[in-house]
Amino acid sequence: MTTVCVLGATGLVGREMLRCLEERGFPLTRLVPLAREGDGGRRLRFRGEEHVVERARPAALAAADLVLASAGRDASRKLLPLACAGGSTCVDNSSAFRMDPEVPLVVPEVNGECLDARPTLVANPNCSTIQLVSVLEPLRAAFGLSSVQVATYQSASGAGGAALDALYGTPETLDVVPAVGPLDDDDRAEEEVKLERETRKILGLELPVDALCVRVPTRVGHGEAVWVRTEERMDLALACEVLEGAPGIRLDGRRGFATPREVEGTDLVRVGRVRRTGEHGLCFWVAADNLRKGAALNAVQIAERLLG
Amino acid sequence: MTTVCVLGATGLVGREMLRCLEERGFPLTRLVPLAREGDGGRRLRFRGEEHVVERARPAALAAADLVLASAGRDASRKLLPLACAGGSTCVDNSSAFRMDPEVPLVVPEVNGECLDARPTLVANPNCSTIQLVSVLEPLRAAFGLSSVQVATYQSASGAGGAALDALYGTPETLDVVPAVGPLDDDDRAEEEVKLERETRKILGLELPVDALCVRVPTRVGHGEAVWVRTEERMDLALACEVLEGAPGIRLDGRRGFATPREVEGTDLVRVGRVRRTGEHGLCFWVAADNLRKGAALNAVQIAERLLG
Fold first, then answer.
1. What percentage of chain B exceeds 90 in pLDDT?
2. Which of B54, B53, B94 is nearest to B73 (CA)?
3. Is the pLDDT of residue A166 over 90?
4. Which residues constitute the domain of residue B238?
5. Same domain, yes or no, for A238 and A172?
6. Angstrom distance (rounded) from CA A196 to CA A200
């Protein structure tokens, strides 16, 4: 008997979590979709049955075996400690606990061994981080990393349903915004800070990561232009071989690539346009579905490994 | 008496050239708009008068004092040598002559002194190159440059009118494409090769420039995420001071920035989100109207200086 609570079930990521649980035949016997007060009473379908969304209450969370949370940082801070204390295992997609040294921050293909100790609270990384580290890890293992620079092409869905709706205007309103989230005192946007810190924590490296995060007018799918500097001399053929054999990613070749639109609804992190830059450098393009591998799918994969 | 031919007058850049000539009170006494056969006979307004677009013929070009050409590489290769031989001065927006060592490639604010010798043929750089070198040149003068990495966010208008029309679909079709132009044997896209070579030629440096050029679904305005490595130690305050005093650009501050939509119809290259990265590095965002400073305006500025 496994009861799974999805907290934030009516949001873009929450709905994708339900889809992933269903598609992957996740071994749950009872689903409890929860949401903020305003969305309580809404109905959604899961495995052919209608479920009524309940208002999120601590008791419901504590009674679950597993909580998949994607209702924002404040809701996670308030509710997940209570759920853990009540005996639930929680996977949190918010940023609330990601940098907490007690909480593992996990991409199963990269540092899944953090789950072997069966932690009761696991943080799901930021969407841009997940697709980046999926490609960095095999390169780190083969060449060592000395620095990373990344320019992102982040879709509207990463900013939630309202941003997605705003695309339905005229082309005159489509714009590119080189600031994702508020800027801190060091002039870094929130998304850039997340990408830099989370990458270091997941890889377990004091790696200089410099990100310029940009919102672009696409619906779903994030792209990244990435430059890495490596400790060992770069060998393009070896880099491609290493990327081809790595879990969770698909190499589209040195010349090939996947666009954000092409990765929508798919599970793999795609890497292409792979080129050597200088003696110790590699440049490449990465794309993934930010709602799936960037959020819901990675959370469900964490849960599968925790319960497996 | 100055007769000006605009070759390719019905295209996106050609029409912008007419606007720039008009807005800036360019000292011309006669305008001759030319286009490919299919567009001959079309009418357009200039300074309140209607002009009939003529089919491009060598005789018309050779009879002009000045030719502003933006009708593609093949038309320029075929027609401009005849125009020059006939005594015209030509400013060419195509890529036909940009890398020709005999032909200056000019951004007036950067290497305008190339025009002092009154060359009869001058090449106008690629749109992405113009906005990049406008910012690189003051940084080069102050710190020296050792390498440049740039990820572009290029609008549909850079691919012509048909690409612009394609934005008028549904948001489901909006996509980001990390390849602008065909790839060469070194896996570089045509736009990347232009950006790298032209930047070196304009700055007169054997500078390593590595570009990943990406088309994004915006109408007008190109963005660039840029990382530079400098020879001298980076001083952020000095960098900002230098950028503030440089011609043709506007610094939006360390935290500020301009979006592509905001620069549409404007003349300056905008630079913002300026940050130090490491001891010898600077990261920043650049945006400019690709049809104006990136093409038509820069060509007209070259012409002004040639005739001035």
1. 93
2. B94
3. no
4. 128-290
5. yes
6. 7
Span A246-260, average pLDDT: 97
pLDDT of B151 reads 98
Residue B222 designated active-site = yes
Q: Residue A260 pLDDT > 90, yes or no?
A: yes
DSSP letter for B215, please: B
Pair B132, B112 in one domain: no
Supply the CATH number for residue A20's domain: 3.40.50.720
A122 and A91 Cβ atoms separated by less than 8 Å: yes
Domain count, chain B: 2
SS3 state of residue B40: coil
Position A169 confidence tier, pLDDT thresholds 50, 70, 90 = confident
B101 and B146 together in one domain: no
Please tell me which residue of chain B has the smallest CA distance to A156. Answer: B171
Which chain B positions have a beta carbon within 8 Å of A148's beta carbon?
Answer: none
Residue with tokens 């489901």: B172
B90 in active site: no
Tell me which residues of chain A, numbers 181 to 200, contact chain B at a CB-CB cutoff of 8 Å: 183, 186-188
Asked if residue B166 and residue B189 are part of one domain, the reply reads yes
Verify that B301 and B284 share a domain, yes or no. no
A193-206 pLDDT tens trace: 999 999 999 999 99
Q: Does any CB of chain B come closer than 8 Å to the CB of residue A229?
A: no
Average pLDDT over every residue of B39-52 = 93
Which residues on chain A are in Cβ contact (under 8 Å) with B178?
A: 223, 225, 257, 259, 272-273, 285
CATH of the domain at B267: 3.30.360.10
Claim to verify: residue A171 and residue A274 sit in the same structural domain: yes
Above pLDDT 70, what percent of chain A? 100
Q: What angle do CA A124, A126, A132 make, to 5 degrees?
A: 110
**Domain match, B178 and B117 both:** no
Residues 97-156 of A with CB under 8 A from B: 147, 149, 151, 153
Q: What is the C-alpha to C-alpha distance for residues B90 and B78, in angstroms, rounded to an integer?
A: 13
Percent of chain A's residues with pLDDT above 90? 93
- Beta-bridged to residue B92, according to DSSP, are B69, B123
Percentages helix, strand, coil for chain A (3-state, rounded to 5) are 35, 25, 40
B175 and B102, same domain (yes or no)? no
* pLDDT band of A36, cuts 50, 70, 90: confident
Mean pLDDT for the stretch of residues A64-93: 96
Q: Does B206 touch chain A (CB under 8 A)?
A: no
Taking the CA of residue A186 and the nearest CA in chain B, the distance in Å comes to 9
